[in-house]
Write a structure and sequence with these properties.
This protein is α/β, with parallel strands linked by helices. 42% of the residues lie in helices and 15% in strands. It contains 14 helices and nine strands. An eight-stranded parallel beta barrel has the order 1-2-3-4-5-6-8-9, surrounded by five helices. β7, α12 and β8 form a beta-alpha-beta unit. About 1% of the residues have low confidence. Bound molecules: ligand 9MR. The site of ligand 9MR has 8 residues, from loops.
Length: 372
């Protein structure tokens, strides 16, 4: 009897606790849920992630992100390794992953001077290059028609001064290759959003070149829907003002703006060092790899503040921004551990190598009212 009485006394507390737990569970939000009204939150996936090799990573990806880009496997050297051979085994898995998880699927990339199959780099003849472009773009875009939501049709066609980069495409077809690429992609899937994607295209000179390029594509009759600013950024640069000017300038052309490969390096860049010899070998240099074991709190805070000011700007212009994609899920997989110097330990993303959310994650989440 006594026991039952005790239980009755405790009952309100038990009910209160369980309601609270439920409430807490409801409030456990993610990046994708917090930003669902503003823009997609994406990540780049490597082969192991596409193949769901690590259950913990997989559940983090599904919980936090609603858009995916293949970090490497859709590049031409992988999907079109020889003239008469396409290999879609991995890209089919990538698409299946996105479909299964109701994710926005971005295609990266159709026409890029880098990671080309060796046979493509050898094309010198105009007719042969035209035939290549038609076959390559039409085959890939048609195969995933209605499945891939947006494409990087052309990637990194500009030099830093805004002029057109010399490439096998420019050398054979001249600047018309840009218009042709967008026309071919639109013909193969009229509903997919078509993007031009580049790095440093928020910087004034390159931005101006990018604007001219977009105008050329439009004047030539190509359909272009958006511009991808890759956003491989640093703690101190580019400035928020420069990024804002770019969002405004590109959207003034009627284009969507996507941040397609966001990460922020916290490591020194040897090319910033006065008098540093570019050809010097920095591998294994302690000065160039200052945080091999742990990121000091002071830098962690700087990174978090940098992410907060960037996302504050993104929120301000959310009506112009379609997607913000991080270039990787966690620090351990980032390409920045190997560039521009191999074998360093970098900390550019929101999750650390053990998949723990960093202070930068908390800051990005804090900007949103997470109780909605
Ligand atoms: O992250 C990618 C890395 O694994 C590859 O080795 C590299 C090869 O060029 O490409 C990296 O991704 C690049 C992207 O495809 C285009 N923009 C720059 C990215 C970082 O280099």
């Amino acid at each position: 009897m006594k026991l039952i009485n005790h239980y009755l006394l405790l009952l309100p507390l038990i009910i209160f606790n369980s309601c609270n737990a439920q409430k807490k569970e409801k409030n456990v939000v993610s990046l994708k849920d917090s930003y669902k009204k503003e823009f997609y939150i994406g990540t780049a996936l490597d082969v192991n992630q596409i193949e769901e090799k690590n259950a913990k990573e997989d559940s983090l990806i599904k919980k936090q992100f609603n858009a995916i880009t293949a970090e490497n496997i859709m590049k031409s050297m992988f999907v079109h390794p020889s003239k008469d051979k396409y290999d879609f085994a991995m890209s089919d898995k990538f698409i299946a992953y996105g479909e299964k998880n109701n994710m926005f699927i971005h295609g990266h990339t159709l026409i890029w001077h880098s990671q080309l199959a060796p046979w493509m780099a050898e094309i010198k003849d105009v007719a042969e290059m035209k035939a290549f472009m038609k076959n390559h773009i039409t085959t890939i875009v048609s195969k995933y028609k209605g499945k891939i939501d947006s494409w990087d049709v052309v990637n990194e066609a500009l030099n830093e001064d805004g002029t057109l980069r010399k490439s096998v495409f420019l050398n054979t077809l001249g600047e018309q290759y840009l218009v042709d690429a967008f026309k071919l992609a639109a013909a193969a899937d009229p509903k997919a959003d078509l993007y031009y994607n580049d790095y440093n295209n928020e910087e004034p000179a390159k931005r101006k070149g990018n604007i001219d390029l977009i105008k050329k594509i439009k004047e030539g009759g190509g359909k272009i829907d958006g511009v991808g600013i890759q956003a491989h950024w640093r703690l101190e640069s580019p400035s928020i003002e420069t990024i804002e000017e770019s969002i405004l300038a590109y959207s003034a052309l009627g284009l969507k703006v996507a941040f397609t490969e966001l990460d922020i390096t916290v490591l020194p860049n040897p090319w910033d060092l006065k008098g540093a010899d570019v050809n010097q070998n920095f591998e294994g240099s302690a000065k160039m790899n200052p945080y091999p074991d742990k990121l000091p709190d002071s830098v962690q805070v700087k990174l978090a503040e940098r992410y907060a000011s960037i996302f504050k700007l993104f929120l301000k212009h959310q009506d112009k921004i379609s997607r913000v994609t991080f270039w990787g899920v966690h620090d351990g997989q980032s390409w920045l551990n190997d560039w521009p110097i191999k074998g360093r330990t970098n900390y550019p993303l929101l999750f650390d190598k053990n998949l723990k959310p960093k202070k930068a994650y908390q800051n990005v989440m804090k900007l949103k009212d997470t109780k909605e």
